[in-house]
């Protein structure tokens, strides 16, 4: 499979890569610093900061999943990716995105408890409950993406396998399949709704 990158902006790829590189470095550094600070400072070992840790970890995972291929395309004009690598990248992009949605929901729940039940906050959101919430969010994020991604390994693909992005997304891959992919399209619609 091949990437197109940013259609119409091929001449500006080097300029775009500079800004993407700084955003990439800033994202990795800031999320890594946040994870390190929360780990080292024992005053921050509270549910709100655990959820911030989960959010920083998902952002770091999403950045590390997408940006290397984007930077390879922009800086080195590396446009090819193997099918298995592409499917794996799509799996991790979508899984981490689902986990991020779950973490944001958990943070909303944390805020709800803090506002509505401030005196019972510590008894409601214990460390054990936060770990359980985190495991449910993580499991849901990774398991729910398996059914649409797994069949991608078995589809046959048209000879002109050109993705319309700088990284692999399920929607882009499914458009390249020569087989009937109705289940995959419908499953994602149902999953998102």
UniProtKB/TrEMBL annotation:
Signal peptide: none annotated. The keyword Transmembrane helix applies. Residues 30-193 form the G-protein coupled receptors family 1 profile domain. The chain crosses the membrane at residues 12-37, 49-71, 91-109, 130-155. GO terms for biological process: G protein-coupled receptor signaling pathway. It is found in: Membrane. It is a multi-pass membrane protein. GO terms for cellular component: plasma membrane. Keywords: Membrane, Olfaction, Sensory transduction, Transducer, Transmembrane, Transmembrane helix. GO terms for molecular function: olfactory receptor activity. PANTHER family: OLFACTORY RECEPTOR 51B5, OLFACTORY RECEPTOR 56B1-RELATED. This is G-protein coupled receptors family 1 profile domain-containing protein.
């Amino acid at each position: 499979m091949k990437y197109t990158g940013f259609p119409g902006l091929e001449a500006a790829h080097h300029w775009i890569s500079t800004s993407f590189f700084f955003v990439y470095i800033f994202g990795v550094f800031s999320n890594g610093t946040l994870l390190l600070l929360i780990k080292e400072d024992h005053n921050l070992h509270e549910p709100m900061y655990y959820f911030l840790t989960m959010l920083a970890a998902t952002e770091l995972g999403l950045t590390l999943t997408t940006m290397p291929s984007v930077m390879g395309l922009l800086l080195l004009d590396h446009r090819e990716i193997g099918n298995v690598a592409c499917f794996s990248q799509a799996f991790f992009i979508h899984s981490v995105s689902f986990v991020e949605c779950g973490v944001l929901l958990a943070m909303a729940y944390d805020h709800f408890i803090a506002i509505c039940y401030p005196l019972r906050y510590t008894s409601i959101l214990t460390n054990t409950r936060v770990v359980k919430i985190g495991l449910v969010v993580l499991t849901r994020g990774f398991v729910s993406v398996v059914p649409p991604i797994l069949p991608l390994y078995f589809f046959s693909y048209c000879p002109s396998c050109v993705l319309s992005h700088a990284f692999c997304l399920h929607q882009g891959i499914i458009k390249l399949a020569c087989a009937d992919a109705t289940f995959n399209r419908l499953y994602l619609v149902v999953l998102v709704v």
